[in-house]
Amino acid sequence: MSANNNSEAVMKKPGWLVYYAPANTTPRFMLMSSQYPNVLFTALLIGLPAMTATAAGLDDPQLPTVLSATRLKQAPAEVPGSMTVLDRALIRASGARSIPELLRQVPGMHIGYRRGNQTNVNYHGTNVTEARRLQVLVDGRSVYRSGLATVDWAELALSIEDIDRIEVFRGPNTAAYGANALMGVINIITRLPLDAQGTTLKYTHGDRGVRDWYASQGGGDFQHNWRVSLSGQQDDGFDHDDDGNNYRDRLRASRMNLRHLWQLAPNQSLDWQFSASETSRQNDYEYSTYLDHEDGNSPLDQSINAHQPYADIRGRDFATQGLWKLDLNPDHQIQIQAHAQHLQRLRDWRVCDSPLVFSDSLRQLNSLSQLAARRVSSYLDKSGRTETPDQYIGRYLSSAGETYTPQMQQLANQVLAEIDLYSNGQPACWDINENIRETRYQLEIQDSLRLSPQLRLLSGASYRYDRVDSETYFSGTLDNAVTQVFGNLEYRPHHRWLFQAGGMYENDQLIGDSFSPRLATHFFLAPQHSLRFVYAEAVRSADMYENNADWRYQVRNLSGPVTGPTTLYGHAQGPGDLDQERMRSREVGYNGNFHQLGLRVDVRVFHERITAMNSEPLKIDNFLPNNDSQIRFKGVETELDWQAGRADRIRLTHARIDYDATSKYDQRLTAHHSGSVAWLHKWPYDINTSLMYYGADQLNERRFERLDSRIEKNMDFSQDSSLTMALVWQYRLDDEAMTWDENLHDSPSHYYLSAELHF
């Protein structure tokens, strides 16, 4: 059942103060201008309508349910946390071409770009280059990569047109979905085949190389119905880097989805899906030479700097899943879900470096201290030094808590003596790859039971098997198995009170055992207005790459003046004993539905602390994963959705976040103030418009403000056929790069036009 069936509207303007208060028994709603980005909402005060404490009040109009909080169907006011639902009307009105861009409408969600074809989605922030702490599901199937602890948004075998809604649980939800739901859960729910009957063809064309297409066909009857869709997406990414050079970050993606829903019996159904995608992401040459003399004039430097082949990434994903449901009676349901998925990322290119990288002395020094090996190189990169090499290297090791031993000194001096042997010669060149393949199988059983009118119980268990295969990252294959047992008990002793207790026991073969509890209390001021108090503990298990990497580049087709062993000095070894990251979260919130006004409000006040964090960069020459970091978040998030009449919908979100992080890497992608405003309007003659504003005061220390507008004209030819034309125009209101210095466009303006034919 859709979590937001009402048509809703959204307006986004910089800086509004929202105040809601009752005057006697008549509510008032006022908007007063303020200045963004300092404060988007300065206050949100809610006056609740009077209500008599009678059981008859529970018969008020019921809100649509959400599914992704506890796995139980619940009204928003019953959820043990904050839930954002992006419904189909809002998704369509946004004009977004990717799921991360849709998530800008979620309070506290921060969207960063490593490059035009690589997006990171973080809730509340943490490391700007990684997104390790959100569980992402597609119809209940996890697309979080266990091998490299990330979500590849560009490679998802899913098109925007197939999405029915996105449910985002904001806050720790390990109690329901296990480790990696540390900071939240994003559940992308696709459209039922019965809702997509007939043929749909769509094409989108715009500047920045936008060329998207979509085609779907749906059919069947109430017993068997199906939908198959094909889609493609491409764009040229950012235009140039901070030096004015052309930026190679083009994306090309092709996707296929097939879904079949079979009503086996009146109380039994089988939902089966298959999806596949193939992508190509442009990447420039990426290899860090040991001696980084970009302006060097030696023959060796010139040869190395002239070698810049491309290193594009090719991706292929396949997945199949099935969901069987059996309603034993109106109060008891059993479901079994199984899925299998396989992905591969292929990347190979030829690199050139000084023959020194095959030096046995350098290899031994790097095995003793990666920092010492790097400092030998950096000593030579700087001129005019007054320190000796031993003084320079020793000073840096001492500041990092390492001891510069006599053995290290001897090896460092041997490396320094070897450098001059190659400066006037030719480089060594060879082929390398960063290919990786990941496979997952999972089986899950879930039981939902109403024990009495006051008591509901959800329980279940799952088994997941993961395998990762990479000669570069793991020197072969690595396996893992995860077993989970979970449950949630919901008790309503009185129409004013609701108590919930849930938890997840999890056994990770490579990490060990963990238990994540959650306790929640709701007090109902009215049937659709509740105050909630939530305490939760959550964990995140280190992925295979962090904990068990055996990273070394295999050398093939070597050329150049290399004698002796042909093993590169660089090698990264995972510690194998990383602890789980742990969070404790406390939340006080309010969720209310002013039915007569068409107004929905959610407020979340939170305090979260994560300890034993791994926040270190994970590079082959700087691979030091640990549990030494921690971060504390506290703040307020507000979400308001107002159906202001039949023609208008206004939606506002704001997050005010304060944080205290011990690692500099966790301080980059947390905006103190961020939010969105949207206005959707239905005009006569089947014309629809939307105006949306997104803003954040800092994303990797950069301001972000953008205004999106969309105009749509629908032309009905018959009851079953129509043509829809839509124009989307985006305009950046700031002059900053997007997340990183090199992410720049030639113009702040971006547009694309789409035509959609349905028959």
Automatic annotation (TrEMBL):
InterPro entries: Beta-barrel_TonB, Beta-barrel_TonB_sf, Plug_dom, Plug_dom_sf, TonB-dep_rcpt-like. Pfam families: Plug, TonB_dep_Rec_b-barrel. Keywords: Cell outer membrane, Membrane, TonB box, Transmembrane, Transmembrane beta strand, Transport. It is a multi-pass membrane protein. The keyword Membrane applies. GO terms for cellular component: cell outer membrane. One of its GO terms (molecular function) is siderophore uptake transmembrane transporter activity. Residues 274-696 form the TonB-dependent receptor-like beta-barrel domain. The keyword Transport applies. GO terms for biological process: siderophore transmembrane transport. It is found in: Cell outer membrane. Residues 77-185 form the TonB-dependent receptor plug domain. PANTHER family: BLL4766 PROTEIN, TONB-DEPENDENT OUTER MEMBRANE RECEPTOR. Belongs to the TonB-dependent receptor family. This is Iron complex outermembrane recepter protein. It comes from Halopseudomonas litoralis.
